[in-house]
Structures are given as structure tokens and as C-alpha cells.
Write a structure and sequence with these properties.
The protein has 389 residues and is α/β, with parallel strands linked by helices. The chain has helices at residues 4-14, 149-157, 196-206, 221-230, 251-258, 292-310, 359-364; strands at residues 20-24, 32-33, 37-38, 48-49, 53-56, 66-73, 87-91, 103-106, 110-113, 116-119, 128-129, 140-141, 145-146, 162-166, 170-175, 180-181, 192-193, 210-213, 236-240, 260-265, 269-270, 276-280, 283-288, 321-325, 336-344, 347-350, 367-371, 383-388. The longest helix is centred in the last third of the chain and has 19 residues, at 292-310. Bound molecules: ligand LQZAQKY5 and molybdate ion.
């Protein structure tokens, strides 16, 4: 059995980032920028007022001084002329500061009478945003990076109506097992509903991929062949179930017969021991164990980083953070244990029941607490690592 980092490294080695495409900025939420975006001009493109008030010359900034208002500068409607001593221009937030003015007096610090204002108070600040104080022409937003609200705001202000992003990787999800039926279908007493594919599809979509849930493959070679045929145009195949050693667990052997080159089988983790990965007729394949918790844990630990890597992001494991253990834990066995747990106010407490079939416990958990292989007993108050889910 190999370790989790070793398995993840071998999965990255199977993958090649997908190609790129040009898309409208409006469709870029959640996508990964593939090429640096470069600002074609300064922002702000002119010195701009940060407040509503009056633009004046610095020399005129004296308490009690009276000035003549000679015009208005509004956002999108600049005052054309320059401004001299003894003069003021009514100005609004975001408006260009007239040539010659180098200070804004906020309107609360003035009294106005017709076209005259009197300065009644003064701030230390000039309330002028210098040209290019946000970014200058030539500023780069570097790729690769995932685009969300903040990046899209910036890209729009950089006048990027279209951007180059990585294509969304297509992931075919194949559930295997004679006992499985899709939710809503007729179910016999000896069958259960196929749940793994729904969670896995959500993980894939959350990571920017396109998930395709294929029809359930029964535990026989021709059913598996049919499912794999449907996955032919995918960037990644994810299977669930049939990975273990039972008489009906034929995924590994059958897939090899159909063209799979297996790169590894079995990982020192819990849940998830029968994980495998390989290349299926040119398409990378990750084979997850069938137990629902194993499938989602392995999806989080392996499929999510794989999706990031397919979209041009660095080959990196899922982020861990530290938390304080809320309750003592016994020593751990030889496999790295991903325990379902609750993280609240910095403290993490594991659930009593950790069987990898318990979907209710998994859905109640908000993190996985990681126990290293052969870890000594841990006491409440100790620092531990968790992954938020
Ligand atoms: N003799 C041994 N038996 C088992 C071992 C072992 O080392 N020796 N490993 C156990 C571990 S650990 C796991 S994990 C499971 C994994 O087995 P498979 O990947 O072959 O999964 P299945 O047998 O097909 O299913 C296991 C379990 O999960 C249910 N299942 C499967 N697919 C789905 C699905 N899509 N949605 C919901 N539930 C699903 C299935 O009905 C079984 O109950 O093997 C242990 N056995
Ligand atoms: O490795 Mo299994 O996934 O513990 O239930």
C-alpha cells in the first residue's frame, strides 16, 4: 500500500491540463484564467475626487476663507477649464479633479451662499485619488488563478470583455453494482439507491468541472464496457464501487481487460483503502471505493486536486488548517484516518461513529480530522489538522 501523498503524486502524473478557450467575462465566474490579463490604461484614468464637496487650490485651504464657485465636475461630466486662486468647483465623488485644483473640501466643511462658499472646517486629507492609484497601464493579473467576484470586478475595470480560461474538464462518473438503482426508480428489497455519483458530481462541479453521471454499470464485463464507451470523450473517468476483493468486485480486473493500465491499487488511508488509478485508453481514471463516505472522502482528497490540476492550477493537495482537539482520541492504526468531525470556534470534535457507510454522519460533519498513520493517542487541547468540507 502506498501513502496518500504518493497516491496523489501518481494521480497528478496521469493528468495533462486541458486546453483553453476565449469566453465573455460574464461567463467566467469560477473559471481559471489561462493567460495574464494586462490593463490597457490607468485606473483611475484621471485624478478623481474621493468625496462630495468643492475642488480648490491648496493655497486657498484656510479656515474662514471665501471662494467663488465657477462650475461643476460630476462623475462622467468633467469640468472643462482650469481653476485659479480664490475659485472653487462643485465636485462629486468619482469626478475628475479640475486642472489646477489639488484639494477637495468636503461639503460638510463649507457653508454656501449662492455662488460663494466659506470654509468652516478642514481635514488633513486632500481627498484626491491619484491617477493610477488603483492600477497603472500594464498592470498584470497573473494566470493561472480561479476567478470569483473580486477578480471579475478587477477584470471588468481592466476593460477585459473576453478572457482566455481553461476549458471545464469533462468528468464521467460511473457507479457500479448490481444492488444500485437510481433515486426515483423501482427498487427491490435487496437493492439500495445509488448515492455516490450525486456527491461526486457536486464535488466536480464545485471545482469547475462538467460532471456527467453515466447509467449504472452492473457487475459484468459487458455492462462495464457499455459505460466506458460512453465515457470516451471525457478528460477524467471516476468510478465508484467494485474496487475491493469480493467475488463481485470486478472493476479492477474487468477494466484491465477493457484497456486500463493500473498505476496503483490500495492506499494507506481510512476510509479509502481500495482506491486505484490508471490510464483507460488514453483517459485518466480514478477508481473510488463504493462505500459512500469512502467515495466522498477520496473524491475530496484526490478528485478535487485532480480537477484543479486539469484546469492549469498547481499540483497541490487539498488545503489543511489547524484546529484544537475538543476531545481525546485513541492511537491510530497504520492507515491515515480521515475522521468525520465538527469544527466550531476553533475546536474540533470527532463523531463517535466512523463507519464508512454512514451518510448521515458525513452530512452532519463540516470537516475531516486527519490522524497520521500510527499516531499516538491525542489529548483534548492538542493541535490537529483538519480539512473543511
Ligand atoms: N475482505 C475484504 N472486504 C472488504 C475490504 C477488504 O479489504 N477485504 N475492504 C472494505 C473496504 S475498506 C471498502 S471501502 C469496501 C469497498 O468495496 P468496493 O469498492 O468494492 O465497493 P462495493 O463492494 O461495490 O460497495 C461497498 C458498499 O458501498 C455500497 N455502494 C456501492 N456503490 C454505491 C453507490 N454508488 N451509492 C451508494 N452505495 C454504494 C455498496 O452497496 C456496499 O454496501 O470493501 C470492504 N470490503
Ligand atoms: O477503505 Mo473503506 O473505504 O474504510 O470503508
Amino acid at each position: 500500500m502506498i501513502s496518500v501523498p504518493e497516491a496523489l503524486g501518481r494521480i497528478f502524473a496521469l493528468l495533462t491540463p486541458v486546453g483553453t478557450e476565449n469566453i465573455p467575462l460574464r461567463q467566467a465566474n469560477g473559471r481559471v484564467l489561462a493567460v495574464d490579463a494586462i490593463a490597457p490604461r490607468d485606473q483611475p484614468p484621471f485624478p478623481a475626487s474621493a468625496m462630495d464637496g468643492y475642488a480648490i487650490r491648496h493655497d486657498d485651504a484656510e479656515l474662514g476663507k471665501e471662494l467663488t464657485v465657477i462650475g461643476t465636475s460630476a462623475a462622467g461630466a468633467a469640468f472643462a477649464g482650469p481653476i485659479g486662486n480664490g475659485k472653487a468647483v462643485r465636485i462629486f465623488t468619482g469626478a475628475p479633479v479640475p486642472v489646477g485644483a489639488d484639494r477637495i473640501v468636503i461639503q460638510e466643511h463649507t457653508t454656501r451662499d449662492a455662488d460663494r462658499i466659506k470654509i468652516s472646517d478642514l481635514s488633513e486629507q486632500d481627498f484626491i485619488r491619484a491617477r493610477a492609484s488603483d492600477f497603472a497601464e500594464g498592470f498584470r493579473l497573473g494566470a493561472p488563478r480561479r476567478l470569483g467576484a473580486t477578480e471579475l470586478t478587477l477584470l471588468a475595470s481592466m476593460n477585459q470583455p473576453e478572457i482566455e480560461v481553461y476549458r471545464r474538464p469533462k468528468v464521467a462518473i460511473i457507479s457500479t453494482g448490481d444492488e444500485l438503482v437510481m433515486p426515483g426508480d423501482d427498487v427491490r428489497a435487496d437493492q439500495i439507491f445509488a448515492s455516490n455519483a450525486f456527491g461526486l458530481a457536486a464535488l466536480v462541479e464545485n471545482m469547475g468541472g462538467i460532471a456527467q453521471i453515466l447509467p449504472i454499470a452492473r457487475d459484468n464485463l459487458s455492462a462495464l464496457r457499455g459505460a466506458f464507451d460512453l465515457a470516451a470523450n471525457s478528460d477524467l473517468i471516476v468510478t465508484s464501487g467494485g474496487a475491493s476483493v469480493g467475488d463481485h468486485d470486478l472493476l479492477g480486473n474487468a477494466a484491465e481487460e477493457l484497456g486500463l493500465t493500473r498505476y496503483f491499487y490500495k492506499v494507506a488511508m481510512r476510509p479509502g483503502k481500495p482506491l486505484m488509478a490508471g490510464m483507460f485508453n488514453g483517459i485518466p481514471l480514478i477508481g473510488l471505493p463504493g462505500n459512500p463516505v469512502s467515495s466522498i472522502v477520496c473524491g475530496t482528497i484526490f478528485v478535487c486536486p485532480a480537477l484543479r490540476y486539469l484546469q492549469g492550477l498547481p499540483a497541490a493537495p487539498i488545503q489543511r488548517i489547524t484546529a484544537t482537539l475538543g476531545r481525546d482520541l485513541p492511537h491510530n492504526g497504520p492507515r491515515e484516518h480521515y475522521m468525520r468531525a465538527m469544527f466550531e470556534s476553533g475546536s474540533v470534535t470527532v463523531y463517535d461513529h466512523q463507519d464508512s457507510s454512514l451518510q448521515t454522519i458525513l452530512s452532519g460533519a463540516n470537516c475531516l480530522l486527519i490522524r497520521p498513520p500510527n499516531a499516538a493517542p491525542a489529548q483534548a487541547g492538542q493541535e490537529v489538522e483538519i480539512i473543511q468540507i
